Amino acid sequence: MGSTHNLPSSRRKNILSHPMNQLLFFFLLISAVIPAASCDEQKPNIIYLMLDEWGYFESGHMGHPELLTPNIDRLAGEGMRFTNAYAGAPVCGPTRCVLLTGLHSGHTSMRSNNGFNPIREDETTLATMLKSKGYATGGFGKWGIGGRGTSGVPEKHGFDDFFGYYDQVHAHTFYPQYLIRNSKEVPLEGNEGTSFYEGKTHAQTEIFKESLGFIKKNHTQPFFCYLPWTPPHGLWGIDGNDPSWQLFKDKAWKAGQRTDRDARVYAAFIHMVDRQLGEILALIKELKIDDNTILVMCGDNGGQDYFKTPERPHGFFGPNLNPRTGERFRAGKGSLYEGGLKVPFLVRWPEKIKAGSVTDHLCYFPDIMPTLSEISGADCPKTDGLSILPTLTGKGEQNQHTSLYWEYTGQTAVRMKNWKAYKARKGDWKLFDLSQDIEEKNDLSRAHPNILAKLVAIAKSSHQPIKPGKIHHRELIEKDRRQAPHARNKPKK
Q1: Domains of the chain listed by start with CATH number
Q2: What is the mean pLDDT of each run of 10 residues along the chain (493 residues)?
Q3: pTM for this one?
Q4: Do 253 and 294 contact (CB within 8 A), yes or no?
Q5: Of the candidates 151, 123, 155, which has an alpha carbon nearest to the alpha carbon of residue 369?
């Protein structure tokens, strides 16, 4: 339109009296005063990588002498490491339910791990929440909270695309005949599905490719990339030419009841996902989205004492054994003792999180939903969590949990500050002071009955009856479960 300042005043008046010109003049004025939004104001991308049964001490930066994890160690060095982070449950399905819904296991719709207890269709997940703020949403790996033909499938819970396993038994094999994309079967070339160890197409390779593809496709908009990868869990099959396998295939390890090969493959799996993490870090840097991407990496539950030997009674790789002090978290996967719940938890967000920082802030999986809600600006449904954003950024006041709660197959546990109460299905309540007894060896229930009474009261008030989801086509779940060779001859329930 050009400037009106050099026109006669009567002409300027006529031009500015026209409604469309007034609107344009107002727009130009506002544009001059308010600068365009900077890149810093864009909603950050979120990559959430969760490894199945990755133990608290199974990485180099935690002092492990044999497992090779250079990229995980780099992630810890460039971000924040949590020393006091807990899973939502001690096994894969229920812990995923807690993570994705923000509810602790006394409130969730899925509390068992049998594959036939999906979440409800009306439940909000992390993907549902973030999708409401314009995020592209993709998941790649093991879903675990609703098989095909149920109310719990990911495409009904905010995911634009989910590729991998829906059922956890299906995920026990890395050479299935097919994987699942949005409830449709995707054949894997050359896999007969009859062996844990042999096939042409390795499932994790395909899941990783899809993970990278999603990031590339959506890097110009905010995205949520959920990566619940199966390794190092599963029945250990790996391609003979995999570069991580080449590092460990000739190790002279004696791994007890299980084959020596399985222990070597487990170590190779840890290195393989570390290698793939490195490729993700390189990709987001190449795409120039590194500074605006939050990357979270954690385990899904406590470690499993695989490959025990007389010389290594805590498991061949000691997932819950501190290699520096010799202390061990009690029990492991499936238990509500520390060994079943303590997980590695790392968060990287360049220029927002101080590199190399370590925090003892007490948190658990219900905290993820309110945290991502605050980061993205999305409305958060009612959860049992508290945002950990103040801890991550060092800005604002961090709210603290008055208590944390878990239940699983008759077990119950409550933590209040340093106190933890535990009850098995059969047995009395026990009380531990974790600040003095991280191994949970010294029961203080008789010495501190008032404290125990408070924790027991919290446990009673934290449990609600389950409101389960629905199974529409059970035969689809059963078909997927039979992809794992060990499940093929089991009788139907």
Answers
A1: 44-402 (3.40.720.10), 410-462 (3.30.1120.10)
A2: 44 49 46 37 93 98 98 98 98 98 98 94 98 98 98 98 97 96 98 91 98 98 98 91 97 79 95 98 98 98 94 96 98 98 98 98 98 98 98 98 98 98 97 98 98 98 97 97 79 43
A3: 0.91
A4: no
A5: 123
